[in-house]
Amino acid sequence: MTSKMDGSSFYTMGVDSGSLTGKAVIIDENMRIVSYSVKQLGFVSQKAVTMAIDEALEKAGLVLDDIAFTVSTGYGRKRLEIAGKNLTEISCHAKGANYLFPEVKTVIDIGGQDSKVIAVDQTGNVKNFAMNDKCAAGTGQFLEVLARALDVELTEIGELSMQSDADIKISSMCTTFAESEVISLVAEGHSTIDILSGMHKAISGRMKGLVGRVGMQKPVMMTGGGAKNIGLVHALEKSLGVSIFIPNEPQIVGALGAALFAKDFATGIRKKVEEEEDLDKSRAPAKDCASCSIQNYQLNKTT
Fold this sequence. Notes:
Distance between the termini: 65 Å
Largest sheet: 5 strands, mixed
Structural class: alpha/beta
Number of strands: 10
Strand content: 15-25%
Radius of gyration: 20 Å
Number of helices: 10
Helix content: 25-40%
């Protein structure tokens, strides 16, 4: 394929190596989105990232040499060799959200493995944030595990949950114990749609707590794969008492922000992102289910 670079224009790319999906966005010198791609092939899959990059380039009619600068973000951001910089997804979601909706003040990102609430200023910088890091509670994985327990396709749970007007409460936000709770609710005769509604209410309650830590300001945008779940969006809107703006493709917001940062780096407008060091320091230490205090407390009660 021939290059489109002609010396008067350039392209930059953002790549989001997420916990479950690889995303790539290419923009031109006018910050117009030229192409994007989303691929899912398992946990932090380098193959999915490569496929997303290749597809985005093909859609744009470009080759990799046409890209002036690449910024990577997400779980696997430090593994992308072609990236000139790697930035946290918090900075990139804030930047991408501001581009799509300049008035946005609060961004809620529900991804596969973590959830974040980000306070954004008028230029797309991070003012404050809160996240549940290294725990599946309130994430896409939480919903996936419980959907599997109910033998329902993940893509169907949002629409199904909207059919319920019941008030079922799922008290445990630990994925392992919530699954047991769902099984018990099935055994008690509760319908699938009512349990699904309870699942979404449980997540919205947890997210309301994160929003409270940051301090919600309107307008609110939702990004990440969770934004494609209409039942979850509805539950969050009801819990927070606001209307939530959903972009056309919520999964690419982080990669879009990375592409915008790449343009800043490529043109010399920016040499670093000020909040990055503080964001990395503030992340919770890694833990697994075996070391989780909730699980240990529950297990000790039963032994």
